[in-house]
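[Automated response] Your request has been received and processed.

Submitted sequence:
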Amino acid sequence: MSPDGKTFLVTGSTDGVGRQVALELAAAGGTVLLHGRNRERAEHLIREIRKHGNGKAVFYPADLASLQQVRELAAAVRRNHERLDVLVNNAGIGSRSGGSQRRISADGHELRFAVNYLAGFLLTRLLLPLIVATAPARIVNVASAGQSPLDFDDVMLTRGYDGGRAYTQSKLAQVMFTCDLARELEGTGVTVNCLHPATYMDTTMVRESGVSPISTVKEGADAILNLALSDDLAGRTGLYFDRQRVSRANAQAYDETARRKLRALSLELAGLS
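Generated structure:
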């Protein structure tokens, strides 16, 4: 699938792997809807995109720790664009971003669950009518190989909090959502897949965690772009990739009872039930 003439929303695209994905999509002629919290970084990226003179870029600021701002982001995209060919849910915070202590979102939810999973869940749900109307279209969820099962008695980790577990359960929630939504959207022309893009990329998130990077953002971006654009993946949905290979996620991702519980909880927390 050529990006030329198509519209892409990449969350978390003013830094790290999201920035690289946005640059490559725009260089190939795509219209890229940039998202982030830092306007200065966004404006610098837009200047860089314009320098190549191929694609277009528009910046939409939003703090994904606030579900109201997620709603405003979705409303702005629906208002200003007639199509959305690919949604890349990439934005996230790491196990030690802002410190490893337990923090809560603007809505009172555990912060890593809120930003890494719930915001993308709500954004996707609100943009689905536009995505389905654009079909064939794709949704790509940037998850991780680090995955921990959700304890539905304490999803917000109020007991014995650990930043690493908070991060890895939020990433498994993304995979579970991918499998669930793929089944729901069968026959619509919209595919939903997720991936672990690369291990310890050279990003702010990884550096904040105190780990020495071992992969480049280019490697991660190539894996994300594969899911977003590859003709080989046309019609293939509900898959988890380790980089560019189909792989197997944590067993809870394939547990329909667990997925049903997560769906009900997510709809309630997002105010959609």
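Summary generated for your ticket: Residues 36 and 187 are 32 Å apart (CA to CA). Helices lie at 16-27, 39-52, 67-80, 111-134, 163-184, 204-208, 217-229, 256-269.
If you did not submit this request, please reply to this message.
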